Amino acid sequence: MGIRKDGQEIGVLSMVKLFSRCASLVLLSILMVPISSHANEWFLMSRHGSCSNINSLERKIGDMTDVETPDDFIELIIQKGHDVKVYEPADLHGNAVNVEVPAKELFIMFVTKELCKDFTQR
Fold first, then answer.
1. pLDDT tens-digit profile of 29-67?
2. Of all helices (H) and strands (E), which one includes residue 24?
3. How far is CA 122 from its chain centroid?
4. Long-range contacts from 20-25, C-beta under 8 angstroms, 24+ separation
5. How far, in Å, are 42, 60, 66, 111, 122 from residue 36 at the CA level?
């Protein structure tokens, strides 16, 4: 049993309720955090650090409706029957994803807006 600030004992049942509420709040806060690449706005980065919109890949890939994240792009490429190699640089803390599609001769770096120096139109 525990003791409250006012000196009264807290019963076991009260402590269980308190623990249950704390656990619920922790679980709720975890569920509210965006998952993986859907948390940010994503772009393609060139070798020189400038960025462009993901849809600029349409000329090589075809229809890219609803492709907004690296995960969306990877799913689309797999649906089209192509092999994909994915690498997330650990030092960029989830803000970059390298994707290679050998059949299309694509070597792409997806980055979040924070990593872009400037933006280009393609």
1. 444 334 344 568 999 998 887 899 999 999 888 888 899
2. helix 12-32
3. 24
4. none
5. 12, 26, 17, 13, 27
Distance CA 30, CA 96 (A): 22
Average pLDDT for residues 69-77, to the nearest whole number? 95
Choice between 120 and 32, residue whose per-residue pLDDT is larger? 120
**The tokens of 51 are what?**
């960025």
DSSP secondary structure, 46-115, as one string: -TTSEEE-GGGGHHHH---TT--SHHHHHHHHHHTT---EEE--GGGTTSEEEEEEGGGTEEEEEEEGGG
pLDDT band at residue 89 under the 50/70/90 scheme:
very high
